[in-house]
Amino acid sequence: MHHSYFRASVDRATREPLEYTTVSIQETNQSVLADSAGAYVLEGLCSGDYHLRVFHLGCPPGEYFLSLRKDTMLTILLDHHGELLREVVVEGKPNSFQESQNQQTITSSMIRDQAGQSLADMTENIAGVRTIRNGSGITKPVIHGLYGNRVAIINNGLLQAGQQWGADHAPEIDPNSVTVITVVKGSDAIEYGSQALGGALLVEAGPIKRDPHLHGTFGYAYETNGRGHTLTGMANRSYKTIDWRLTGTWKKAGDHHTPDYFLTNTGASELNGSLQLVFRPTEKVQHQVYYSLFTSTLGIFAGSHISNLTDLEEAIGREEPFNINDYFSYDINPPKQEISHHLLKYSGKKFVDENIFLEWTYGLQADHRQEFDVRRGNRSDIPALDLQLWSNNFQLKYINDKSRVRYKAGVQATITDNSNDYDTGILPLIPDYLESVTGLYSLFQYPVGKLVLEAGARYDLQLLKAWPITLTLPREIVVMEHVFNDYAFSAGAVFKATNDDETRLQLVVARRSPESNELYSNGLHQGVAGIEEGNWLLQPEVSFKSIMTQALAFTDLLHVELSLYSHLVYDYIYLKPDDELRLTIRGAFPVYKYTQQDAWIRGADIVLISDFSHHLEWNAKFSWVRGTTLEDGKDLSLMPPAYVSSSLAWAFHDSPVWKGSRIAVGAEYTTMQEHWDPESELLAPPSDYFLLGIRFNTGIKLGSRIFYAGIAVENLLNIRYRDYLNRLRYYADEQGINARFNLRYEF
Amino acid sequence: MKSFKYLYIPLLSLFIALSSCEKDPQIPNEEELITTVTYTLTPVTGGDPVIFSFRDLDGDGGQNPVIIEGRPKANTVYNAVVGLYNESVSPVDTITNEVSEEALEHQFFYTFSDMNASYIYTDLDTENHPIGIMTRVTTGEPSEGLVTIILRHLPDKFASGVSDGDISNAGGETDIEVSFLVIIE
User: Which residues face B88 on adjacent strands?
Assistant: First the structure.
């Protein structure tokens, strides 16, 4: 018997993916559900003959015969009405252009099973991605040890224009409005700009299925910890030349709970929606309008509300934090954040040929962030920080996937306008500024046999004009102008010996210019009792990142993916603590100044997957990253500690009622961050911890309807622990046991 | 591909246009700022007051604060008053008024270290807890030490020891923390 693997996607006659098709193999009783992109994978099959049965709700089942001899990619063209069913077997050629990139995807079904969680939390499923957080509600992805200004978040093709610099500013994106989340770990600065120096997070609403009937989902999720309710809804429909999709999310959560006490004021509420319209006047032209609104109110843990170093030291030593209540509440009081983010996008696509097209895009984003503090004299209702950011983006992209050398080229221009509301009565943390970035890029891929070579280049001209306010008296507004030239070059190679044996190498040189917060930020960071100061003399940092990824299958049982990376950043911009404390009227504060020094970040990610049988699957992930300065070898702060996670899953046989039932037990061990610099940390990193979780998902078929239900329990053992990447680690434990229920109806 | 060149020209001009763009930022009115703390000890029997002050007119950062320290007399009882001011606005704003208006939410704490002095609160809020704007300080034999004045916003005034001036269970947020060198003569 020869192990084989086959992968397929289900398309309709229109070649658009058809969501949630079930493909089952009669011989093995194996059955998989395709994701929203219509893709599914059946692994671990032996060579042989198989009868496939394809289900799609509302369609008569289609039956196929497949003679499997080697790894095969199968595209099934399925007509929703069932009149036309035919089969096409496509050999080999993958859909190019993502090939040598290091990227992983979270699919629609995973997003829906985790309804209620934040976007960043979902990305943690991927090896090498962690989150930094401020309590339980505010999370931000960390890719290979980098975050914030060094991770580009691409929201439907546009660089997310919010206040990304803040460690406590979560991305303003509703995961329910997207169908695909992709994490790009290779520093793909080429297409996404200099902010992608450390990686990129791509979120896409995805194509609307070409289905003439009204379809959609209604979902409800409940979390016991924080008593969080999430309602999600999605509907879409396709007509001859117009498709539409509407999504909406409502979320309300209250105070979370550690094993011992309530984390008072850690509630959150969200109200989000999106509308996507696609016009197809002809087969070769497509226009798309997309609008999304994200609004949220996030409470900041009351016990972290301290103001100076003495308060912090006092808070650190306490058994239980200050300012906590012994009861649950949904109330969100200052300190809190109120955010709204609008995104409006128009894009058009003209196909010259099947795999050759020109795409033009205009995007407008408006981001409003208000941060409230506990203030004297009834001022708590006046935000302490009130930033309004407008961003205009123009893009033009040309893709030729057909020629011998595949290429992609584009121009991009972005104008950002950031304004402070001066009614805050407080000197702004970052100044008003205008910024324009104009860039040109091109990427080439050249397949030679089993090898694909890749090269790319990018150039950006960046102009920043800022209006900071002097710290000395009399207060004055200064006008500052900066011109930066950023560039990036990449080279890569993929060698695919067999489907299981693939080697990827990528080298990227990228230059990132300092952002306005690094140049001009000035002020006190409340929760961490430190004064942060920008440095307007900063120069761009230049990074050299190399990644090597090797995929292997040792036996039929074990698939291994090993990824090693080394990231040298010359003139790395970071916050360095000053030698002396600064005396203010509120006591003494440590001062952190933006400084530049050469740094080296290196790490490894390992993923192991094993299918013991059709029912039993095991996987394990391991990540390690280390960051030091080159000159004096000091440890960089906020580098995720090494961790290992593993899960064992059992898939049940389908019955007439129960479909796709699956139970998984997961364990995660996070080590203590041993590598830390006592000069830049106020407190030693917390000790290691072990977490256990369990998850059960199933589909319940009642008549012609299917309901999806799931239960996931996190921190099953109700462990007391603290997370090095959580800003609240000084004050409180992480949340204790949490059960998450979710129920979904798809029509 | 040729068309890119032509498209780049308007984008470039857009970029140039930006450099002539203006914004009209304003300087916020820092009405909440506390620039000055004074601590005035007046002998109960009358006489010249002893004055301590901490002034940082430009707030955190900028210029260093200016500190003036006085020398109280040994074995004397003083009426002590703390004053908070915002001298960055004109006219000068007396923040102590704001604190007494929100007396339930505020309390001053004093620590005298390495010297012979003690204090008692002489003012109360509407729930009969001390505010600490006014205190009575009694000095002992000549000595030298530090007085630290802390104003807590939203302390737990009911917590044990807090009404007696013990800050350790108070919680809340520090609005003021200044220390003066005191030489008791």
Answer: none
